[in-house]
From TrEMBL:
GO cellular component labels: cytoplasm
Organism of provenance: Rhodotorula taiwanensis
Taxonomic path: Eukaryota, Fungi, Dikarya, Basidiomycota, Pucciniomycotina
Keyword terms of this UniProt record: GTP-binding, Hydrolase, Nucleotide-binding
Protein name: GPN-loop GTPase 2
Compositionally skewed regions (Basic and acidic residues) per UniProt: 382-393
Summary of the function given for this chain in its UniProt record: Small GTPase required for proper localization of RNA polymerase II and III (RNAPII and RNAPIII). May act at an RNAP assembly step prior to nuclear import.
CDD domains given in the database record: GPN2
Amino acid sequence: MPVGQVVIGPPGSGKTTYVWGLYQFLTALGRPVLVVNLDPAANTPPYPPAVSIDSLISLDDAMDAHHLGPNGAMLYCLEYLEENLDWLTEQLEAAMSHLERNPPKPPTLPGQPGELDDDSDEDTAATDGARPRWRREDMYVVFDTPGQVELSTNHDSLKRVVAALQKRLGFRLAAVHLMDASHILDASRYVAVLLLALRTMLQLELPHVNVLSKVDLLGQSGEDLPFNLDYYTEVQDLSYLLPLLERDQRTQKFAGLNRTICDLVEEFGLVSFETLAVEDKDSMLRLVQVIDQALGYVPPSLSSLPTASSSGHAHQHDHAAHHAHAPHPAFADSQPLSSALHTGTIQEKWVDHSSEWNQFEQDRWKAEGEWAAERATEASRKLAVERAKREQMAVDETGPSAAQPSS
Ligand SMILES: Nc1nc2c(ncn2[C@@H]2O[C@H](COP(=O)(O)OP(=O)(O)OP(=O)(O)O)[C@@H](O)[C@H]2O)c(=O)[nH]1
Ligand SMILES: [Mg+2]
């Protein structure tokens, strides 16, 4: 069964930027990733879409043909997509089959076998016996959607499209709901975000990961957060918000309503948040791991690793083993994962001490760069020594005249 993320969220919350970043990140991790653009207003997304709704219908077409405004036309486009599910499933089927036949090469680190001497770059995985073909259950599809919130709160087309993908193509999907982190700076906006998150979870009925996006901008806002970041991400005791809401002139007359909304969100006990700064590797890695868990996805690069319980045999669906193992080799020499997992670190990094962290990161990248350069030099040195040895052996076999430099 292929897996996928349905990336949703209000306009400007960072969906397309995240999808593009995720595509690059997962490609670097060697995952078979495809991106599907379901936003009919985005004719030229930054990522290379494997399938785009634009080839079926565009927002402008819908507006012209039916004399609709942009919002009405957007709903029309999604309804049109729902009526053309055969088109979507055929396009997806074709894109996944193509990727299965043509997996790109896995990334290699400097000094690893194949790093310097593999010069075969033609796309021949289908005929390359040494390189395994990806399986359908390895496929990872990311769906970028429009920003109209009603599409995921009270309009049913997106929900039915998702249900059809699950039924017809066997997709395992999670909703990844991006909401701008700046909303937590204002108690009343935070309450609105909580309500939106809860409503969307109840509507879509998917495994759901809520995300406070653009967390890197929190420290730059110049405003102080009344509570630590983990208070907002864990959504534990919302009664602490009430004094803030009662102090605010705009919201004090709605004190009863606010209390009821907070009680409602707490009673459901469903809403919590991850955080995202899309250009930060640790932040992306943490989010990818959380979503992997929600999906029960074991990446192909890890699923073939031996587990303790399998005595050296590949144990492909042991998800616990996935987390017991070291991360993908691309990150094996990066910071320990635990440091990327702590909300306190995120608070320190993006809210309290962003400039110091910035300097620390730059030093770390520099050190990583030097390390990689050193490894590359070391690998080239080894190759040069090997070549010299081979030449020496050739000389020994053919006699000293062959050893004279040609100059
Ligand atoms: N600082 C910062 N800016 C971000 C981040 N993610 C997105 N942005 C910016 O936020 C703006 C909106 O991003 P988009 O990706 O277009 O948002 P969207 O949700 O796709 O918007 P719609 O498709 O219109 O609903 C862009 O200017 C991005 O550069 C982030 O993690 N940090
Ligand atoms: Mg977008």
